[in-house]
Amino acid sequence: MLERLRAANILYDRDEQGEYFQFYSRAVAKRVFFEVVERRDYDAFGAANAAIRLSAQASHRGPEWM
What we know:
The protein is 24% helix and 24% strand. The chain has helices at residues 2-7, 50-59; strands at 11-14, 19-24, 35-40. A hairpin with a 4-residue loop joins strand 1 and strand 2. The chain is globular and about 40 Å long.
């Protein structure tokens, strides 16, 4: 399952109670991203993925946003 998620660029987290799936669209007009989240008995907010999200968003912005 992890290989399929990785191939589809879906972030994944889990804890004792559930699972968390998350992906982001490419930037629209270099500034708007859409986030899609699925929680399966997961009460947290996916904080473990925050650094990955910020890095991915930054890599899709042009130098004028840096």
